[in-house]
Amino acid sequence: MMTRLIVSGTDTDVGKTVFCAGLAGALGADYWKPVQAGHEDGTDSRRVAELGGLVPERILPEQYVLNTPASPHHAARLDGIAIDDHALLPPPTGRPLVIEGAGGLMVPVNDDTLFIDIFARWKLPLVLCARTALGTINHSLLSIEAVRRRNIPLVGIAFIGDEQAESERIICKLGGVRRLGRLPYLAPLTRESLRSAFAASFNPTDFTS
Question: pLDDT tens digit string along 153-165?
Fold first, then answer.
């Protein structure tokens, strides 16, 4: 079975798009973002392609591209559409697949469905991205609990940001979750710096076994 992974976050803007670019590059995977909310500054798919060095055929088209950078349920309403959550199905591909959710786990797709509900329906393994800033212990443990309550296979947690060894330790201990590694903030953030940092921070076999 080809590896298919969901990447979600404990919050919005935790850095999961950059993480997805590094992961897709490391695994030789395709990338898919089911719902893109806001595209004036470019889509996440475009950013992953640039940072991960993915050729166009490895970027699978979004199911919905919405105009407003907001929660998908609200952005869709502003566009005069309703997202059919049952139409969101991982596309077939001959390579590994990295799927990026929008925002955090509990982001609503429509008035009745959260992204985490869709993830539970898919039954695919999930990687949780968490920033290392203040507040991450609470956000991370709540997210881990929500994932486990829905019987979603949890691969582990990937931290993003400056090292906070004690926060990372206690989250993994109390959450009973594997620490996959930590991606530091990169300046400059380029394809080369991301590839190097990802290789130094993560073991690709942790995502495929």
Answer: 999 999 999 999 9
